[in-house]
Amino acid sequence: MRRSFVGLGVLASLALAGCGTVGSGSLGAGGVSAEPLCPSKVPRYGGMPLTRPTATADAPRPPGTPTPVPSTTGTAQDGVRITRLYAGAIDEEGVCRSSSLTVEFEVANPAPHDMTYTVVFDANGYTGANRVVGVGPGRTLRGRVAMSRGPGDIAGGTSVSIMSVRSVPTAEAPAPGGPCPASGVRVYADEGDAAMGLRVVGLHLQNCGKEPYTLDGRPELEIIDGDHERVEGVRVLPSAQVAQLGGPPDVARPLTLRPGERALSGIVWRNTVEAFDGAVNAPYLRVRAKAGAAPVMVTPELDLGTTGRLGVQVWRKER
Questions:
Q1: What are the residue boundaries of the structural domains of the chain, listed by start?
Q2: Are 148 and 100 in contact (CB under 8 A)?
Q3: Global pTM?
Q4: What are the two backbone dihedrals, phi and then psi, of residue 40, each rounded to the nearest 5 degrees?
Q5: CA of 28: how far to CAs of 70, 85, 99, 253, in Å?
Q6: Across-strand partners of 187?
Q7: CA 203, 172, 301: angle at the middle one, nearest 5?
Q8: Which of 58, 105, 161, 232 is deepest in the core (most CB within 10 A)?
Q9: The three-state (H, E, C) secondary structure of the chain, written as one string
């Protein structure tokens, strides 16, 4: 069974503005019409754009009338708050897609350093959407995300909620793509797999620098809870002491990666619960590729139960 983890891949556009007007139909408090109207000066989907919009740092207020945000649970979590909803969305071509929903939100960062937030939104009748934003220390960032209606979906009003909020120090954010980090290596986690209570998540490393990079053994790990505090009392063990995963022998050997080459490790755990309390659930894992390496914080959503054990594999070359 495939297990979905909130990683740092972005599933929604970062620059979509809302459009449309609130329908007059009775859908309850904060309801949005299932057939919202587009402003007359904005072409509907299938029409030709009047002008191609220019991307700006501060997007203009979307046209149309916002829907009041319902005063229910789920619209605020961990410094993130939904502030407005709009029926429809104007895409990057300037076309109004009336079957979409635009969510305006704000993220407040109380930390004394830059943080990168991954926020997952959900709405009844629309596909979920992720948004990744970086926020400076003590600052509040405002943004928008568009949610589209899937095939056969019927909009169910404005039951938009924040499913989860995860935040990591920007200096430790994973970099699966984009410019090469100053360390010269990329480290990130994949989505992982789960079956019969066994969890497995791959840790990937790429030498994106200009010099050879040497590894010897296993990555160093720190388990971090939802309050960004280190979790004590969990033993980090060779993976074979948690589960037999097959593949090559889990024996540490020196490994040198030439520029462009990759290495693979992984973590494994069971979520067995054998007591009424003491279960460990920690979203974050701080990873150092080797002793003294720059840390990278990934989000494998560790549900260790009461086992008190986390297995880690040796680095091996990824083919």
A1: 17-169, 174-318
A2: yes
A3: 0.78
A4: -60, -30
A5: 10, 15, 19, 63
A6: 205
A7: 50
A8: 105
A9: CECCCCCCCCCCCCCCEECCECCCCCCCCCCCCCCCECCCCCCECCCCCCCCCCCCCCCCCCCCCCECCCCCCCCEECCEEEEEEEEEEECCCCCEEEEEEEEEEEEECCCCCCEEEEEEEEECCEEEEEEEEEECCCCEEEEEEEEECCCCCCCCCCCCEEEEEEEEEHHHCCCCCCCCCCCCEEEEECCCEEECCEEEEEEEEEECCCCCEEEECCCEEEEECCCCCECCCCEEEEHHHCCCCCCCCCCCCEEEECCCCEEEEEEEEECCCCCCCCCEEECEEEEECCCCCCCEEECCCEEEECCCEEEECCCEEEC
Q: Quick check: 116 and 41 in contact, CB under 8 A?
A: no
The encoded tokens of residue 272 equal: 């067995």
For 260-283, the pLDDT digits (tens) are: 999 999 999 999 988 777 899 999
CATH class in words for 174-318: mainly beta
State the Cα–Cα distance between residues 158 and 65, nearest whole angstrom. 14
Beta-bridge mates of residue 17: 90
Q: Mind listing the pLDDT tens digit for each residue in 8-62?
A: 333 333 333 334 333 333 333 333 333 344 554 444 433 333 343 333 333 334 6
Which of 229-240 are b and which e, b meaning 16 or more Cβ less than 10 Å from the residue's Cβ? Answer: eebeebebeebe
